[in-house]
Write a structure and sequence with these properties.
heterodimer, A: alpha+beta, Immunoglobulin-like, 2 domains, three-stranded mixed beta sheet, 9 helices, 12 strands, elongated, B: 557 residues, Cytochrome C Oxidase, Chain A, 17 helices, 65% helix, 0% strand
Chain lengths: 354, 557
């Protein structure tokens, strides 16, 4: 009788905790309104590229094995604590003293050894398939350079330099055009991570790393720097645009051109070229060739500024030039201390860089 | 036998001025007082580190929160990690070791009592030095501030170019100083356990706690040394023009990672093996059975000790090692699961067929078993290198190692606390408050750290002071932060229970748990000399032999 009463108490306690958690979930859901746009959630369980997909399949195997181990061990534990608890009518005598059992101990040594071997062999195969994959002839080559706190992307074969928003073509299984990336760093450690496309690889100064992606579907894929790199590590965001082959070719044609200088923004151009802007930023076809900050030749072709920290609108661009710390405290771009007039002219000039 | 006390003039506490008693604590070389000093010191840092964690969780409760600046957040994250590892968990485990080892092996003190005191004060001054950075960190001109390089302090963030001022130096020197203390403790553990055991206590008859701390002592010697070396190299880089880690002059950032993690991974086992030791002592007593498979428990611990030195680069799967290098560390990492699994099975085997009493120490041990099981399984996930390429550096990892350190180690520490509190203070704690502590902490722990795995899977990196809305991370971060409130409430109950019981608890008697190891044969608290006459033992459970002369252990071992 007593034991069923106790069980009931335990069950009601567990139910209570369940209700509590469900309540919190509901409350939180109400606070935040509807669910986020699912395509913008960078979940590792929604792979869209071969490396991410191999990892996903491996992870399902690992989850199955660990889940099974959990089920077995957890059941043993729960069984032991419920079956062998001291009863209310205990006679006060000590239970039989058991010191061990060689057979049982051997069993729970050998079985884990076998599991470990299987896990190792499967994992080693996946490591090899991702890390040692040969580069096919149609591959796009990109050099990604990590900076505090933004990304520089160079396409050596195509003569393109851009920042923060990587464009790559979709890879068709019948005619694969994967993107092979060389990862280097200009200052501290960073890590390139787009969860839906591939696992992360670090960008380390004085070391050259490689990774590749072959996106199966067009669209925007989000990620961010995943290795602590300093004050603004959090806003070193990454955007990968997977374009159709035609879109990609068109994008390459557009961003290869030198900047088109619109005569209406002559004043802003003068401000840019006669202040410290040129020390850090490059605009091809002009005297500006600084490399410490992002290339601005086609700034307006990008959706965001400040490495994804803000949308690319005239108001925010102006605010960014005036006081970068307002958007991204700790950013290495200094506040330019320009007059209101110069600021407007400069913003207008940057707005012409399409 | 050893329960009688000898009256020695001058030991009576009553009537002595408080300054004199305080002086006693400062100059003491008694292992029991030093053990308690370690524990109190660690509890202070638990609260400080907890406050830092709370600041971070408040900042992350909603996206784009502005509770603290990124600079402050990065300092909190660095200080929280460094504090909890080096100045909370390690000292509290050393404290229990220092207190318990001589009592459990029937000795009157550690092998080197003065080294013992030296080690404690080095650790203590290391902690003070770290926190002095808040005042002196950036040098005399700007206001001081704490280091913000993360607790791994990856190069080249620590170089003069990226870390201006002295905050990184405070971090470096604090760890160097406390590392010297840790090495002293390691030496002392080894010498005490090998040389000071009472008559009859062969290595095979030692309590498991002594065995496990023997392994910890060796691991401390071999893993703190590379850390100390690396700190000296970093000092040379920063002040004497060295280029070990200076990438701009051809140094290697990866070299620092190797140095740090060849310390860092054995360190995890230095923290968890003493927790295993507590569980291995407490589970048998509350199951009323001897530990299941003593020889294989010892063998598994030694196995963990060795293998733990071959797994370090599983922290570095993303730095671009070759596929062969990655595969090697996948293998060693998976291999360490085998001895760890043996231990979990043997604890369950100990409970099997027993008569389990659910007192607070046992509840915390069961919590430990459950959570350590999950921590081990997420560890297997992280050990599969390709899966690690996704999970490392994300909140999944943060959840995983908090499962180890909070769900595993801290639960075991609380178990040890309640189990040995009557011995240390001579008074019993309040069982009702202890159970409230357990349940609230359990709920808080699971709210915080279960749900923390999910944003990691959804692509949220660790060490970010804020995050973008619309990525599916908001709700999980909210729940995680709410869980912290439960944990704070539980810790408050714990502190109240501790203080109340210390002054108002009932007298505990020598042996409140009807236990079997030697510390329960002397008075509570034990006299300065531990045992009036040194005990002699014939088995692993000397008190069982005395209590059950008709069925003693030595007939079977």
């Amino acid at each position: 009788m007593r034991s069923t009463g106790k069980t009931r108490i335990v069950v009601s306690k567990i139910a209570g905790i369940g209700v509590l958690i469900a309540g919190f979930l509901l409350a939180a859901r109400l606070c935040f309104g509807g669910p986020a746009d699912p395509s913008q959630i960078p979940s590792i369980f929604k792979p869209q590229s071969t490396p991410a997909d191999s990892i996903f399949r491996l992870s399902m195997l690992v989850l199955t094995i660990t889940g099974a181990i959990f089920a077995v061990v957890f059941s043993l534990l729960v069984y032991a604590i419920s079956k062998y608890r001291r009863r209310g009518d205990d006679d006060g005598r000590e239970p039989p003293q058991v010191y061990g059992s060689n057979q049982v101990e051997l069993a729970w040594t050998v079985i884990p050894v076998l599991i470990v071997l299987v896990l190792f062999l499967v994992t080693a195969r996946v490591i090899h398939s991702i890390q040692d994959a040969p580069q096919p002839p149609g591959a796009i080559e990109v050099v990604a350079i990590g900076h505090q706190f933004w990304w520089e992307f160079r396409y050596p074969a195509l003569g393109v330099v851009t920042a923060n928003e990587l464009h790559v073509p979709v890879s068709n299984p019948s005619h694969p055009t994967p993107t092979f990336m060389t990862l280097i760093s200009a200052d501290t450690d960073h890590s390139f991570w787009i969860p839906r496309l591939a696992g992360k690889t670090d960008l380390i100064p004085n070391k050259i790393n490689h990774m590749w992606i072959d996106p199966h579907d067009t669209g925007l894929y989000l990620g961010q720097c995943a290795q602590y790199c300093g004050t603004q590590h959090a806003k070193m965001l990454l955007r990968v645009y997977v374009d159709s082959q035609e879109q990609f070719d068109q994008w390459v044609q557009e961003v290869k051109r030198p900047a088109v200088i619109n005569s209406s923004a002559e004043q802003g151009r003068q401000v840019f070229e006669t202040t410290a802007c040129v020390n850090c930023h490059a605009i091809s076809g002009t005297v500006a060739d600084g490399r410490f900050g992002p290339d601005l030749t086609h700034l307006m072709s990008r959706d965001t500024i400040a490495s994804g920290a803000a949308p690319n609108t005239p108001q925010l661009l102006k605010l960014w030039i005036q006081n970068p710390n307002a958007i991204k405290p700790g950013s290495l771009m200094p506040a330019m201390q320009l007059s209101e007039k110069d600021l407007d002219a400069l913003t207008a000039y940057l707005e012409t860089l399409r | 036998m050893a329960s009688e006390t000898i009256a020695i003039t001058g030991t009576a506490e009553i009537g002595r001025p408080i300054s004199e008693r305080l002086h006693d604590w400062i100059v003491t070389v008694d292992h029991k007082k030093l053990g308690i000093l370690y524990i109190v010191y660690a509890l202070v840092f638990l609260v400080i580190g907890g406050i830092e964690a709370t600041i971070m969780r408040i900042q992350l409760i909603v996206p784009h929160n502005q509770f603290v600046s990124p600079q402050v957040f990065n300092r909190m994250m660095t200080m929280h990690g460094t504090t909890m590892i080096f100045f909370m968990v390690m000292p509290i485990l050393f404290g229990f070791g220092t207190y318990l080892i001589p009592l459990m092996i029937g000795a009157r003190d550690m092998a080197f009592p003065r080294l013992n005191a030296f080690s404690f004060w080095m650790t203590a001054f290391g902690g003070l030095l770290l926190y002095f950075s808040f005042i002196g960190g950036n040098g005399l001109y700007g206001a001081g501030n704490a280091p913000d390089v993360g607790w791994w302090a990856y190069a080249p963030l620590t170089s003069r170019a990226f870390s201006v001022g002295h905050s990184t130096d405070f971090w470096t020197v604090a760890l160097l100083v406390s590392g010297v203390g840790s090495i002293g403790t390691g030496v002392n553990f080894i010498a005490t356990i090998l040389c000071m055991r009472c008559p009859g206590m062969t290595l095979g008859k030692m309590p498991l706690l002594a065995w496990l701390n023997l392994v910890v002592g060796w691991m401390v010697l071999f893993c703190i040394s590379p850390l100390t070396a690396a700190q000296i190299m970093l000092c040379i880089d920063r002040y004497l023009g060295g280029h070990f880690f200076d990438t701009q002059a051809g140094g290697s950032a990866v070299l620092w990672m190797h140095f740090f993690w060849i310390f860092g991974h054995p360190e995890v086992y230095i923290l968890v093996v003493p927790a295993f030791a507590f569980v291995s002592e407490i589970v048998p007593v509350f199951s009323r059975k001897p530990i299941f498979g003593y020889p294989i428990m010892v063998a598994a611990t030694i196995g963990i000790g060795f293998i733990s030195f071959s797994v370090w680069a599983h922290h570095m799967f993303t730095v671009g090692m070759s596929s062969y290098g990655n595969s090697f560390f996948v293998f060693t990492t998976a291999a360490i699961a085998v001895p760890t699994g043996i231990k979990i099975f043997n604890w369950i085997g100990t409970m099997w067929g027993g008569k389990i009493q659910f007192r607070a120490p046992m509840l915390f041990c069961i919590g430990f078993l459950f959570q350590f099981l999950i921590a081990g399984l997420t560890g297997i996930m992280l050990g599969a290198a390709p899966f690690n390429w996704q999970l490392s550096g994300s909140y999944f990892v943060v959840a995983h190692f908090h499962y180890v350190i909070v769900g595993g180690i801290l639960f075991a520490v609380f178990a040890a606390f309640y189990y040995w509190f009557p011995k240390m203070s001579g008074r019993t704690y309040n069982e009702v408050l202890a159970k409230w502590h357990f349940w609230l902490f359990l709920i808080g722990f699971h709210m915080t750290f279960d749900f923390m795995h999910i944003p990691g899977i959804l692509g949220m990196p660790r060490r970010i002071y804020t995050y973008e809305p619309g990525r599916g991370w908001e709700i999980w971060n909210l729940i995680v932060t709410i869980g912290v409130l439960f944990q704070i409430a539980a810790i408050l109950i714990f502190v109240c229970n501790l203080l109340w019981s210390l002054f108002k608890g009932d007298p505990a008697g020598n042996d409140p748990w009807d236990a079997w190891t030697l510390e329960w044969s002397t008075t509570s608290p034990p006299p300065e000399y531990d045992f009036a006459t040194l005990p002699a033992v014939k088995s692993r459970r000397p008190l069982w032999d005395i209590k059950h002369p008709e069925d003693p252990d030595w007939k079977y071992e």
